[in-house]
Amino acid sequence: MGIKPTHGALVIIGGAEDRDGDCVVLREFVRLAGGMKAHIAVMTAATGHPEEVGEVYIRAFKRLGAESVEVVGTERRKDSECEEGIYTIEQATGIFFTGGDQSRIVEFIKGSPLCDAIRKRHQEGVVIGGTSAGAAMMPDEMIVGGASVSNPSINAVSMAPGMGFLPDIMVDQHFAQRGRLGRLLAALVLHPAVLGLGIDEDTAIIVKGDEFEVVGQGAITVVDESTATHNNLEGLLKDEAIALCGVKLHILPSGYRFNLKTHLPVL
Amino acid sequence: MGIKPTHGALVIIGGAEDRDGDCVVLREFVRLAGGMKAHIAVMTAATGHPEEVGEVYIRAFKRLGAESVEVVGTERRKDSECEEGIYTIEQATGIFFTGGDQSRIVEFIKGSPLCDAIRKRHQEGVVIGGTSAGAAMMPDEMIVGGASVSNPSINAVSMAPGMGFLPDIMVDQHFAQRGRLGRLLAALVLHPAVLGLGIDEDTAIIVKGDEFEVVGQGAITVVDESTATHNNLEGLLKDEAIALCGVKLHILPSGYRFNLKTHLPVL
Question: Which H or E run includes A61?
Fold first, then answer.
């Protein structure tokens, strides 16, 4: 649970973070990246509109005072062997993944030389941030799609291997705004014994070692599946309603901290 | 918790129940009302379209074989003194509240002679059913409005006294379909130490004594606030995000039973 204390922090954002106003969430990312001395690499792999999306983050991070902001665009897997991109990562003090489709991040980057460079920088203490799709890809197993505002069934969620920056965790984004409790619970029944984190829009967790802290407008919904006393997964068909008894729930707004190892809020 | 064992059952439906097909939910209501010998009173107080809505349930209940179905329309408080309506209730073996606006049910009926007649029949063992607004009005304190798909804040919910057929319980309807976890949690923080029941569409709980059983397509989300270890209600302003730690959650589809006294699923 959590990440090694020597590794850089993770800033996992539920999407639709403020980029023009106070930028409460992005501000924390830039601070962790070195503040006025930050060199930020913006990874646009997830989006089909890398130029527009890249431009938005260049503007936001520069306005907050980052020293340099470079877009690392990967529109196909081959782009993740490009030396220019790898060089940008090697110089970066903060690496930020934009929104889009989380499957593209895994497909274009995972296991590539660019991926190795990112992991190396993370091990050296560089912060990795991601919003929406860039948040979804953080765990070992990621939610790639499924129904919003539905009760839990196997049909309600589809999953695939993620980037694995934050193990033993399930992440869902736009959580309250899209009513995604059902699909997060379905994901947890399919991959039990992990914590599910539902992250609201304009809200983030900042993970350092075994703990995370919440920043932003909304809240984090922590679903602790480890206390479950019963589920009906055995023999369940795809469209049948899931039963799940005894899971624990924590709703944590800005300022609250949670220990990923003990599964308890730090009060 | 629960209702007295001598009282009639309660059938609390999350709205949008099937009325033209298998009628899995309404079928159980008619069965509890006496099956082929059922005399059903349809209460249309909640709706601004009492004739159309009444007609829908007359058709559905007759198709399922009820012996008689009568609409008791109350479009203002004065109508709840009408002897004809009271007589219909006195003869009824099942009383069903339609959807609409739950505030109208309380405003037009609560504390009236019609209300006394309904309570008397319930004490004598007659089943009371309700869908959507007719479900919302069941508890002592009812949710009358608020935001769907939002994270919990005091703003997210507005409450008022309900009819009190099922005490110490909070009910929300169209639960998964409208992503209402946030507002149910907000309601529970405002009125703690009760169970919150989120009822999906075309899904119902059948309450008998201390237990309920689930029927229908979706699931019941039980939120047990009594295990909560922390909330931030003290000093909280209306638009600020609620914190709530350590509540227990059970997702119960069709066939599952739950004990309202022990707060435990009957497995």
Answer: helix A50-63
